[in-house]
Write a structure and sequence with these properties.
Elements: H1 2-25, H2 29-52, H3 67-76, H4 79-110, H5 112-126, H6 130-141, H7 145-169, H8 173-181, H9 186-223, H10 229-238, H11 242-270
Helix pairs in contact: 4-5, 4-7, 4-9, 4-10, 6-7, 7-9, 8-9, 9-10, 9-11, 10-11
Length: 279
């Protein structure tokens, strides 16, 4: 009894020591923000110095301090409209492309015959550059929203499709056999075992699809658009306004980071069940 109590106390002490060590080595939020912002701030100071000293002409690279006024001017004009239009296109194209990618990937991942029919074609189409689609889509769908959404959907389709197929096919066969032992039918094994086990890979594909949707959105808006952040990039180039081009790039970086952070939070929430698994 004495040995049992001593062993229990020893385990409790070790657990408390491990927790204290983890908290001691856990980086504070201030340090994380400091490290994340250090490089951009240094870059901005270097750009400001080079422009103010005349080493770089202002018409090629405006001083970072002057961008605030350009942002105010755009905000008083139609900046919010451009942001809304681009964001709507991204999420609409992402929903269409990733939704179709999930449907086809589940069929290919679960059925070898479906894989033999579809996967070679999808693998070939995946290698086509995004800009190669634009002339064909303009011929078929014109310059309206259809061509832009289709291009974004194409960009969102393949990361979701590729990651989902790989995740499903890499599910441990022992888990499937365990489902058979417990008497689960084919559909129940898919819903209760295969898809949950493949969910980390599926969610990774969705995050990659969302990031790629922003890239394809720019490709679509640079070619044929009168609104959107891609249009701002093109308009800034044509009017020799590097400040507008830089602000559009910064907006893209911020919007992409925000949407990726949201997707990451959703991913962590959906995969919270993994925390209860004993390691």
């Amino acid at each position: 009894m004495q040995n049992s109590i001593s062993k229990s106390e020893l385990n409790r002490s070790l657990a408390q020591a491990a927790l204290q060590d983890q908290q001691r080595h856990k980086p504070s939020k201030f340090k994380s923000w400091y490290k994340a912002l250090l490089l951009p701030v240094i870059f901005l100071f270097i750009c400001e110095f080079l422009v103010r000293s005349g080493a770089i002409d202002a018409y090629l690279l405006p001083a970072p301090s002057s961008l605030w006024q350009s942002f105010i001017d755009l905000a008083h004009a139609d900046l919010l409209t451009h942001i809304y239009i681009s964001t709507w296109r991204v999420f609409a194209g992402f929903a269409i492309g990733s939704g179709l990618g999930l449907l086809f990937a589940i069929g290919v991942g679960l059925n070898k015959q479906v894989e033999e029919y579809l996967d070679p074609t999808f693998s070939a189409i995946k290698s086509i550059p995004s800009l190669a689609w634009i002339p064909l889509l303009l011929l078929w769908l014109g310059i309206d929203e259809g061509s832009k959404l289709t291009l974004i959907a194409i960009g969102a389709f393949f990361p979701t499709y590729t990651n989902t197929v790989a995740a499903i096919q890499n599910v441990d066969p022992k888990l499937v056999e365990l489902g058979k032992v417990y008497g689960l039918n084919h559909f129940e094994r898919i819903v209760q075992i295969i898809l949950p086990a493949a969910s980390p890979g599926i969610l990774t594909g969705l995050r990659n699809s969302l990031s790629l949707s922003w890239m394809f959105m720019i490709a679509a808006e640079l070619i044929a658009a009168t609104q959107g952040i891609g249009y701002l990039l093109s308009d800034g180039r044509e009017t020799s306004r590097p400040d507008i081009v830089i602000l559009a790039i910064i907006l893209l970086a911020l919007l992409g980071k925000i949407t990726d952070t949201i997707m990451k939070a959703v991913e962590q929430w959906l995969l919270r069940w993994r925390e209860s698994i004993p390691k």
